[in-house]
Design goal:
The complex is a heterotrimer of chains A (309), B (321) and C (455). By secondary structure, chain A is mainly α. Chain A has 15 helices and no strands. Chain A is 73% helix and 0% strand. In chain A, α7 packs parallel to α10 (171-195). In chain C, β4 (152-153) and β5 (156-157) form a beta hairpin. The longest helix of chain C is centred in the N-terminal third of the chain and has 25 residues, at 4-28. Classes of the chains: A mainly alpha (309), B mainly alpha (321), C alpha/beta (455).
């Protein structure tokens, strides 16, 4: 894409790569100019505005049912009433097998549903970005446009196929469906990163006699690994929080994820905000932990992909 | 099913998948001699296969079904499309969808970009980013409760306390509480706020990474030329991260077109807040009108065409660089 | 578990039941008597089902916590005596998912379907199985012909009724009525007078909430059905439901206007919750709670609303809240609007048919009533005439069950549950909601009429 920098020599770009991944890169550059009291104030304001709604839910999850229904969560600070009942109630859904097994199911569903589409998308994105073949543009546009297909139209045809294949009610239905649904966006985003890797790098390897397979796993994969991990986090969040796909395919409660259990938590008739807020926080913990622990990796990953700018 | 059995199944599935990919790479390396084309086809085969079965086939089926009546028996030509463009309720749905897809991507991207620049290199950068990113990690069920505690309305009566934050703030400032999600057309904007709240984190994360990737020499050169902060943003940062901005705008725009759970959980599509994706869901799954539902889905495909075209032109431009 | 009375009942039933079941059981497997618990007295009534050890039956329903537990518990006698295993899955998204599953060929063995309209759709997928003769015989014995018709499609009988609810109820505070000297109204005119009397004290007499996520608006449809039934009588009501008269004809328009005299009357609503519009933004669960705070006096909602009052609320004629029957135009009229669930089978394996049969007996009805009383304090009734009202502990359940069993009662099923999905679970809800926040009655009935599928 349009770029201000003149194309770097392979050596130079490799150096830049190494530098970028070694040090935290010279990020002291732009902000030096931008950091002013006004800028900081705006940043803090935005952060507070963004967090307050969630904070309200956190506070609510520790308040007794009657208090939640009659007063605002901020009343907590003038009249602190604290209870763990909501969490206890949410965790001990004795009628089913408890949230614990749903928790395990969420992991069992999510991990392959992240690994499979990312590997396949990386291969496809490489082909689109670096191999010249007939029908490339057409196929790429097609894949790209498939992003808009609402998942709902795919549910019935897929379930019909799973039933015929004898897969209905197993984890396979969820793994395969999530993988297929993730592919268009994964290919689109990974393709974007791949095209930003200096062409000279690939060309040099070609001159050395390396085939595409070799380039893919010797050069591209190491360069892309962080970017793959980065997309992996997003895919993790989407699958972890998915309710729609799980509702259709996880018809048996031995494979249902957390989200399904949470959706049914409030029961048939009550609004049960107290249970829902506690349940929501239980389900937030994992994605937030994943994000925080992988954040550095995440930034570096996109950085490697966006090296050329 | 036992927990250990589940985990074992998962590990087996992953192993199986790794084996399949291994075989593919092997075949691809053998095909290398026949020409790069074949490598490309092998690389693409699994993705294309899954996409054809998982998305393309249902999409084609949907287009076909959109020309049939509610039960899917009688061919009615463009009848469903006629309904969409003539019924007053459906026109409201179209208007709202346009509003969503125009406002959400730009505002979310702008906020994400401004925030990324503001916290760049700040002391608590990681924490600051996590705060904006948090909504991305929250499921829709949770988000709808979160926003209930913001927009909830309680009447202005003695003994009745507000439980929605926005109305409480209004009352503190001496105003009277409002029915935020009831009064059209502003209620649509209050729903859009929720989507922006979710998507800004996505924009911020990707754009922040792009900003960090801008080479030092470019910044230094600009600085030596005496460019100020605003100029730096206008003439250096923005042009350098333009490709990422387009990716972010595109992704959010498509996500917004497909959004239905924000509307469904907060208003159920009532009070003139309905959007195409939710109406599609309602017609297909609740009103049993497969024909009209499919036509609405096809409308989504059509609405995305301008975005696809724009992206292709960008792609062409980048290839001829 | 079972006391003497129910045991007598079990024995009495098994005679008639056995005959019917032998036919069903003979066709596939010979009933064996080696079931482990077969000897005990509790299992005498279940002997007819044969030995079903190792067999399992899946049940799929929209009934989730806390009401799922009494269901699962009520299956236990069947499980222990026959050896079959019942796998119960509750899912709030049942109503959309069951259609997807039926169409895709992945239905459960038995679905508990809450609407006759949905039942028709499910039968139309071709996946449902007609009920065995034993079930039909039980339904003939324990239910009226109207209930059997709700469980039938295309002239074939499919599903026996399960639970039921009485919708024509008005919640009030017995204490307030006593203190102020209000009398329970026995005609619609008296109800109106009572509302005016309360309004004259400066209090908004009625409170309502119609919010229910994507189903927002359904409580208004119940109001309209109740008034349709009262003002125009059961025959016109039936014509309206089956679209023999148009939705925007005179009778339905008058019924909606009559509802408007209550729900869109800013002197009457919305006690403790705001203005007329606040009805649309209040969830139906919260709609009647102001009665407890004393900011509202009357709330029209079904018998099941009892479970929405916070724990510790005494629901009784002399308690914190109770309900009276929404009267007819004349005191002698006894029209009742209600709802219910149906057990629809998608498999005809012997164990599934045996279980279906069990669910259609008075044995199950009484088991379920007792267990519900123990576990959730009631909140469950059935129109099964074999139900012993003494098994209900909750006063509101007793009242509802006696209304259902009263021979004077003219029962009609919730009309929106029987209309085509495009109306009954979309346009009717949507337009009713728009009507609350300002749309005129004429526009409302016109738009619903326009949404009626043409065929």
């Amino acid at each position: 894409m349009t770029s201000l920098t003149p194309r770097a020599e392979p050596v130079a770009s490799r150096k830049a790569l190494a530098a970028a991944s070694r040090t935290g890169h010279a990020s002291a550059r732009i902000k030096k100019k931008a950091t002013s009291p006004v800028a900081s104030a705006i940043a803090v304001l935005l952060a507070v505005v963004w967090t307050i709604p969630t904070f309200g839910l956190l506070v609510s999850s520790f308040r007794p049912e009657a208090a939640i229904k009659t007063t605002g969560w901020w009343t907590f600070f003038s009249d602190p009433q604290l209870t763990l009942d909501n969490y206890q109630a949410a965790l001990s859904t004795d009628t089913q097998s408890g949230l614990g097994s749903f928790f395990i199911n969420s992991f069992v569903i999510t991990i392959p549903a992240v690994i499979i589409p990312i590997c396949l998308a990386a291969l496809a994105a490489y082909a689109f970005a670096w191999i010249d073949f007939r029908g490339r543009d057409f196929l790429f546009v097609l894949v790209f446009s498939l992003q808009i297909v609402p998942l709902q139209v795919a549910l019935l045809p897929l379930l019909t196929m799973y039933v015929k294949a004898g897969l209905a009610g197993t984890f396979w239905t969820l793994w395969l469906s999530h993988s297929a649904f993730a592919l268009p966006l994964a290919i689109f985003i990974l393709h974007n990163f791949m095209t930003e890797i200096p062409k000279s790098l690939i060309e040099a390897a070609r001159v050395d006699g390396a085939g595409h397979v070799k380039i893919f796993y010797r050069i591209m994969l190491p360069l892309m690994t962080p970017a793959l991990a980065a997309f992996g986090i997003f895919q993790f969040l989407w699958v972890w929080n998915d309710l729609l796909v799980a509702l259709t395919f996880a018809s048996d409660n031995t494979v249902q994820p957390m989200t399904v259990a949470l959706a049914n938590l409030s029961g048939t008739r009550g609004t049960a905000w107290e249970l829902l807020s506690a349940g929501a926080f239980i389900s937030i913990i994992v994605p937030v932990a994943v994000f925080i622990s992988l954040q550095r990796y995440f930034v570096r990953g996109l950085l490697a992909g966006g090296l050329k700018g | 099913m036992d927990t250990s059995v589940k985990i074992l199944t998962m590990l087996l599935a992953i192993l199986l998948f790794v084996a399949v990919v291994g075989v593919m790479l092997f075949i691809a390396s053998r095909a290398e001699r026949k020409g790069a084309q074949f490598v490309a086809y092998v690389f693409l085969l699994p993705s294309i296969l899954m996409l054809s079965v998982g998305l393309l086939y249902p999409a084609v089926k949907t287009i076909y079904a959109s020309f049939f009546d509610a039960a899917g028996n009688a061919f009615i030509g463009l009848g469903n499309y006629h309904t969409i463009f003539t019924s007053s309720d459906e026109i409201t749905v179209l208007r709202n969808t346009v509003l969503w897809v125009v406002v959400t991507p730009f505002v979310a991207t702008a906020i994400g970009l401004v925030y990324a620049i503001l916290v760049e290199g700040a002391k608590a950068e990681a924490l600051a980013k996590a705060m904006i990113f948090l909504p991305m990690a929250i499921s829709m069920v949770a988000a709808s409760i979160i926003w209930k505690f913001v927009y909830e309305f309680r009447p202005d009566q003695p003994g009745v306390k507000q439980i929605g934050l926005l109305n409480q703030v209004l009352v503190w400032l001496g105003g009277s509480p409002q029915q935020w999600i009831l009064n059209a057309p502003w209620n649509t904007f209050f729903l859009i706020v929720v989507m922006i709240w979710i998507q800004a984190g996505f924009a911020m994360t990707i754009l922040s990474a792009s900003i960090k990737a801008i080479p030092d020499d470019v910044i230094e050169a600009a600085r030596l030329d005496g460019v100020n902060a605003l100029g730096m943003f206008r003439f250096v940062t923005l042009p350098m991260i333009r490709p990422s901005v387009i990716v972010v705008l595109t992704t959010i725009a498509i996500g917004t077109l497909k959004v239905f759970d924000v509307v469904r959980t907060m208003t159920g599509g009532n009070f003139d807040t309905n959007v195409v994706a939710n109406e599609f869901y309602t017609q297909s799954f609740r009103a049993s009108n497969a024909g009209l539902g499919s036509a609405l889905a096809v409308l989504l495909f059509i609405l995305v065409v301008p975005i696809v075209v724009y992206n292709i032109r960008q792609l062409r431009a980048s290839e001829s660089r | 578990m079972s006391n003497i009375r129910s045991r007598r009942r079990l024995a009495a039933v098994s005679g008639g039941l056995g005959l019917a079941l032998v036919l069903a059981a003979c066709a596939s497997s010979t009933p064996s008597d080696n079931s482990k618990a077969a000897g005990s007295a509790e299992c005498a009534a279940y002997k007819v089902y044969g030995d079903l050890s190792g067999k399992s039956i899946s049940v799929y329903t929209g009934i989730v916590t806390p009401e799922d537990k009494p269901y699962m518990d009520s299956y236990k006698p069947f499980e222990t005596c026959t050896g079959a295993k019942v796998n119960y899955v509750g899912d709030k998204a049942f109503e959309t998912q069951i259609l997807v599953r039926a169409k895709a060929g992945n239905p459960p063995d038995i679905a508990i379907v809450p609407q006759p309209g949905l039942l028709q759709q499910l039968v139309a997928t071709g996946a449902a199985k007609a009920a065995p003769q034993a079930v039909a015989d039980n339904v003939d014995k324990f239910w009226g012909a109207d209930w059997k018709a709700y469980g039938s499609a295309g002239g074939k009988f499919y599903a026996a009724p399960s639970g039921a609810s009485v919708k024509s109820m008005v919640w009030y505070s017995p204490k307030e009525f006593k203190d102020k000297g209000y009398a329970i109204p026995t005609t619609l005119a008296e109800l109106k007078t009572l509302s005016d009397t309360i309004a004259a004290t400066g209090k908004k007499p009625w409170c309502a909430g119609i919010g229910s996520g994507e189903a927002t608006g359904w409580p208004v449809t119940d109001w309209m059905e109740d008034f349709m039934l009262r003002l125009s009588g059961p025959d016109v009501y039936d014509q309206w439901v089956t679209h023999k008269i148009a939705f925007n004809s005179a009778a339905p328009t008058a019924a909606l206007d009559a509802v408007g005299a209550f729900l869109k009357n800013d002197k009457y609503v919305n006690g403790g919750l705001g203005d007329v519009k606040s009805i649309a933004s209040t969830t139906f669960q919260d709609g009647g709670l102001p009665i407890l705070q004393g900011t509202c006096s009357l709330h029209r909602q079904a018998s099941f609303y009892a479970s929405n009052f916070p724990k510790g609320t005494k629901v009784a004629e002399d308690g914190d809240v109770f309900a009276f029957y929404l009267p007819g135009v004349q005191a002698a009229d006894h029209p009742v609007l209600g709802g219910g669930e149906f057990n629809l089978a998608f498999a005809d394996r012997p164990e599934v048919q045996a279980f279906q049969t069990y669910l259609s007996t008075d044995t199950w009805a009484n088991n379920k009533a007792k267990i519900s009383s123990d576990v959730t304090g009631g909140g469950w009734i059935t129109a099964n005439k074999g139900l012993d009202v003494a098994n209900l502990v909750n006063p509101i359940d007793k009242l509802s069950a006696s209304i259902l069993q009263d021979p004077k009662t003219v029962f009609r099923f919730d009309g929106s549950d029987m209309m085509p999905a495009a109306v009954g679970s979309n346009a009717f809800w949507k337009q009713a909601t728009a009507w609350i926040i300002g749309q005129s009655t004429k526009d409302t009935v016109d738009k619903i009429e326009a949404a009626w599928p043409k065929s």
